[in-house]
DNA sequence: ATGTTC
């Protein structure tokens, strides 16, 4: 990824948890980072602040190039970045603004059980057998060919439910009702299809996980009651995305846009920011393929949730109930007010979560008064959070997505062995299943920011409110 | 994140 540029940018702390980088040079808007100086990665080692500056040069960008408190270095755009472009005024879409794991996201399910009555080892043994994971193949579904895969790409979670994996109520609890409109399977390459055929209903590797958790602390009584969360309650959190299919789609369309940019007269300070106007053949092609990958990721989480629910039913007699499913890697066409006018924007959220405020019409009735649940997976062995959107938030109704890395995978693996980490987690009473030693070491908590501090910064910046803090009882890792 | 280097 190269060496970070010596960043010579002015950073003004204009409010608590709000740093501003005034526009200079080719920047069309300011940069705004919702964080403190303490949480901001060291510019000598991490290029994310320079990436916030680079994103501010994109054609059609409005308001600001935003970054969340968990910001760190990514491909082109920072992870934790939010950028919106005005579709009718030459605004671009950039695959790097979504990332390689298109529609990576989180689903949280609740069990009507207290942690004291959960036979955790038996549940974990069941999950160990039921959850396909790791870099290779193995999945809940085996698709017969392109025709069947296209039903997944068009139907997302709804298709999984139609096939008997879940119930209609689940779809109300999914962003966009479980299906992102505008999917165009014709823009998905043969290679992406090939990679996708054998991975629907699989966890993957890296920071993806399935955790059994318990509510440690309720921080907003009213919203927690609306979400069905109580102290001691058992939950299941699933963090995964669109696997090799989404990765291939990103690769394919970065290449297409890299070649097309010149024809549109677009120049960017970093090739990884390859982009095209939303209203161009290349822009539409990417958004159609991206929506297809989003639906694949949603079906993936739906299938894994059903597999986990089957395990809970066998072991405890109780099925799981879906609280919410939301992505943190997506570009969406949304309407927002800019300078007193409703504008159609392409909102890129990369390692950032949509956080709709109470009363928003896109929320289902059961969640409308409380606001959208925002699901924040912590690093392994640490807390996770449920947050909610707030009226008057910021960054086009967005907030953080997780703890955010501070060490590379290589650095983390050098610092601790997988065996030592497993022992430590088990010493903390956390059951670990099926993780490779290397994979475990790469995900060591010390490789991440403190999720409590990240959430405090997101709240302090006024982006969201904390509803509940969850702690892990057992983790299934790829 | 990723058939972890087309």
TrEMBL record:
Protein name: tRNA-splicing ligase RtcB
PANTHER family, alphabetized: RNA-SPLICING LIGASE RTCB HOMOLOG
EC numbers on record: 6.5.1.-
Assembly information from the UniProt record: Monomer.
Positions contributing to Mn(2+) 2 binding: 239, 328
Top enzyme class: ligase
PROSITE patterns registered for this protein in UniProt: UPF0027 (PS01288)
């Amino acid at each position: 990824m190269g060496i970070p540029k010596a960043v010579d940018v002015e950073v003004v702390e204009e409010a608590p948890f709000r740093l501003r980088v005034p526009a200079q040079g080719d920047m069309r808007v300011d940069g705004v980072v919702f964080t403190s100086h303490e949480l901001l990665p060291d510019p000598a080692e991490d290029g994310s602040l320079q990436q916030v500056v680079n994103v501010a040069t994109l054609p059609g960008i409005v308001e600001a190039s935003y970054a969340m408190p968990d910001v760190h270095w990514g491909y082109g755009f920072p992870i934790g970045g939010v950028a919106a472009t005005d579709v009718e005024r030459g605004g671009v879409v950039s695959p790097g603004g979504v990332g390689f794991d298109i529609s990576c996201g989180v689903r949280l399910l609740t069990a009507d059980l207290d942690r004291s009555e959960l036979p955790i080892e038996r549940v974990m043994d069941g999950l160990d057998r039921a959850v396909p994971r790791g870099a290779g193949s193995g999945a809940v579904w085996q698709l017969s060919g392109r025709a069947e895969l296209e039903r997944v790409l068009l139907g997302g979670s709804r298709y999984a439910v139609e096939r008997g994996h879940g119930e209609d109520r689940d779809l109300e609890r999914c962003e966009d009702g479980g299906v992102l409109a505008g999917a165009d399977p014709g823009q998905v390459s043969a290679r992406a299809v090939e990679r996708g055929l054998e991975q629907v209903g699989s966890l993957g590797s890296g920071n993806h996980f399935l955790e059994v958790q318990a509510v440690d602390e309720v921080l907003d009584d009213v919203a927690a009651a609306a979400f069905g969360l109580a102290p001691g309650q058992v939950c299941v959190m699933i963090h995964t995305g669109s696997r090799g299919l989404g990765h291939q789609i990103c690769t394919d369309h970065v290449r297409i846009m890299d070649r097309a940019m010149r024809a549109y007269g677009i120049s960017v300070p970093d090739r990884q920011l390859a982009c095209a106007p939303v209203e161009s053949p290349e822009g539409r092609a990417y958004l159609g393929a991206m929506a297809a990958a989003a639906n694949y990721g949603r079906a993936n989480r739906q299938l894994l949730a059903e597999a986990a629910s089957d395990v809970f039913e066998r072991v405890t007699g109780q099925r799981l109930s879906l609280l919410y499913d939301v992505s943190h890697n997506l570009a969406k066409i949304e309407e927002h007010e800019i300078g007193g006018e409703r504008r159609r924007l392409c909102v890129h959220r990369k390692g950032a979560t949509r956080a709709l405020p109470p009363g928003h019409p896109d929320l289902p009735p059961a969640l409308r008064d409380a606001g959208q649940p925002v699901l924040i997976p912590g690093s392994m062995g640490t807390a996770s959070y449920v947050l909610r959107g707030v009226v008057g938030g910021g960054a086009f109704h967005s907030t953080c997505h997780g703890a955010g890395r501070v060490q590379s995978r290589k650095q983390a693996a050098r610092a601790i062995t997988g065996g030592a980490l497993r022992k430590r987690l088990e010493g903390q009473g956390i059951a670990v299943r099926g993780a490779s030693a290397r994979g475990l070491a790469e995900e060591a908590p010390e490789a991440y920011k403190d999720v409590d501090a990240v959430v405090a910064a997101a709240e302090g910046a006024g982006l969201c409110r904390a509803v509940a803090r969850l702690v892990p009882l057992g983790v299934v890792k790829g």
